[in-house]
Specification:
Elements lengths: L15 E2 L2 E2 L5 H17 L3 H15 L5 E3 L1 H7 L2 E6 L9 H14 L4 E6 L3 H13 L2 E7 H6 L1 H9 L3 E5 L6 H14 L4 E3 L9 H9 L1 H14 L6 E6 L3 H7 L9 E9 L10 H4 L1 E5 L2 E5 L24 H8 L3 E7 H15 L5 H8 L11 E6 L7 H7 L4
Parallel strand pairs: 4-14, 5-6, 5-8, 6-7, 9-10, 9-14, 10-13
Antiparallel strand pairs: 1-2, 3-4, 11-12
Helix pairs in contact: 2-4, 4-5, 4-9, 5-7, 9-11, 10-11, 14-15
Length: 399
């Protein structure tokens, strides 16, 4: 984490990525967000903070996560496909990277109560895990729909000592959980809100991307030792709010030779009303404290997103990704439920790796690309599929 100052996100002091980002927050949260911003900039380059972060990454999370050349998958696409194995992290996804960074920051700010929102439950589990490790109170908001479809993660959070609050408003998924978490923070300003993605008011999108940037930092050094070069030709990641993609893209953003591909959840199709493809279907607006692309009606009512994957059905997108897409830096590919399921079963059967439904969207993008035999393609496998087994079982005869 020491070479960070060489790499900066395309963000200004007010938290804008081009015209996206900023901090649109109620008056009651101004002080909180200011204190957070101040603490973040004070500690992010602090040697002791980074030492503690790096030690936990190595000894607790099990990093570096392997960069694995998937031989049979590479053969199938006649190119070189490497999987960045975030699924092998403790708790089963990339979410733990940000949870540890954020909670370490909270502790330095003297906070004792942690709030989080969660969709698929992975961020909730990661936050509950770090709170158990550090002896902090943890409250997790989760849409009632997601509580039902991600039961194993709910049980894990409870076992870890977190209070899980099912949210019954809206269509009871991630957006609604986020609304409730923000409401809680307004009422309990002495709490620390750990946001699970590159969304929310500045400094969250930048901070979460920074904690996740360990992914692309490792990709560079691992490729170097695998093939003698640091930069791949392609990096592919799924985007919901966008934290795993931000981490996988981070150290390549300012290198135009590396093509960045964001796979978003098309649900039943971008032209249907059952989709979560925000970049494709969204228009500029404000959600959860940031100006970004939002799925909304012409008069600004949020359109409920849909995806088979609980972690991708968010009606917004991190401002960094809105900016990268609008400038053409990323190629954005919508991947449907069907394409993601197909890709998940394929990876399982030819590589023996069961991916999370979210990560399966990144794998689904492979079919939409044209690779050369000597291309180096890195797919960020953001999480493992344990939490999605009941969904996979419902479709096992179809694929």
């Amino acid at each position: 984490m020491n070479n960070y100052h060489h790499h900066t996100l395309p963000v200004n002091d007010a938290g804008y990525y081009g015209r996206f980002g900023g901090a649109y927050i109620p008056e009651i949260l101004h002080h909180n967000v200011e204190m957070l911003t101040e603490a973040y900039y004070r500690y992010i380059d602090d040697p002791q903070f980074n030492q503690q972060f790096n030690d936990l990454m190595r000894d607790y999370v099990g990093r570096p996560s392997p960069l694995y050349r998937a031989g049979r998958l590479s053969e199938l696409y006649n190119t070189n496909i490497y999987l960045k194995r975030e699924d092998l992290n403790h708790t089963g996804a990339h979410k733990i990277n940000n949870a540890i960074g954020s909670v370490l920051l909270a502790m330095r700010m003297g906070k004792k109560r942690i709030i989080a929102e969660t969709g698929a439950g992975q961020h909730g589990v990661a936050t509950a895990t770090v709170c158990a490790l550090m002896g902090l109170e943890c409250v997790v908001y989760m849409g009632a729909t997601d509580v039902a479809r991600q039961q194993p993660n709910v049980e894990r959070m409870k076992m870890l000592g977190a209070t899980v609050i099912p949210v019954e408003s809206g269509n009871m998924t991630l957006k609604d959980a986020t609304n409730e978490a923000i409401r809680d923070w307004c009422c309990n300003p002495d709490s620390f809100y750990v946001i699970g993605s590159t969304v929310g008011p500045h400094p969250y999108p930048e901070m979460v991307a920074r904690f996740q940037s360990i992914i692309s930092e490792e990709i560079k050094s691992q490729l170097k030792s695998h093939i003698g070069r640091e930069n791949p030709d392609y990096v592919i990641a799924c985007v919901g709010g966008g934290s795993n993609a931000a981490g996988a893209f981070y150290h390549f953003i300012d290198n135009p030779d590396v093509k960045l591909v964001a796979a978003e959840a098309a649900g039943l199709g971008v032209d249907t009303d059952k989709t979560a493809a925000t970049i494709q279907a969204g228009t500029e607006g404000i959600i959860h404290g940031a100006r970004t692309l939002v799925m909304q009606t012409p008069d600004g009512q949020i359109i409920e997103p849909y995806s088979i994957s609980a972690g991708l059905d968010y009606p917004g997108i991190g401002p960094l990704h809105a900016y990268l897409a609008s400038t053409g830096r990323t190629k954005v590919l919508p991947v449907t439920d069907d394409e993601a399921l197909r890709a998940a079963f394929r990876l399982t059967r030819i590589e023996g790796i069961i991916p999370a439904l979210e990560s399966a969207h990144a794998l689904g993008a492979l079919d939409k690309m044209d690779f050369k035999p000597d291309d180096i393609v890195v797919v960020n496998l953001s999480g493992r599929g344990d939490k999605d087994m009941h969904t996979y079982m419902a479709y096992k005869d179809k694929y």
